[in-house]
Amino acid sequence: xxxxxxxPLVALMFTACPAEPTPAPAPTAxxxxxxxxxxxxxxxxxxxxxxxxxxxxxxxxxxVVEPEGDQMKFATEEITVKAGEKTRIKMKNTATxxxxxxxxxxxxxxxxxxxxxxxxxxxxxxxxxxxxADVIAATKLAKPGETTTVVVExxxxxxxFICTFPGHYMMMKGVVKAxxx
Length: 181
Fold this sequence. Notes:
This protein is of the alpha/beta class.
């Protein structure tokens, strides 16, 4: 007895069982934000940057930073601290316009824009300070006439500082130099 296979059946057998496995499809546009969220979670620190620099009332050297009037600009654009020594940094908001709410966020060198962009998602309740691996310490928001404080102890090196109130980080920035003496 002879069995004949029809040509369409033979063709189906060869296309249904490819010789090489097919690669997984690339993530769709809808799946990409989820992948980015997972990556961002890896960067998030376990501690609140505002709590890290909470003022404990100690007797430390003090630096006062103010805005340049009612502009989105720090009057002081460079701060020098002694490396490894606790230093109190005060954000004294001398602005008079209600919209000029400011803070000081110390970040790893070169990460100000990335942190500034992430600040909106943190929201006002967190003083627009994102839980981001590049954030070292931060003050709370200071409304005009208020002063907020952060205590830092930085290893030798250069850091950036910015104001993370929405839109301010692009103009309100400076450098912190921690120097060995």
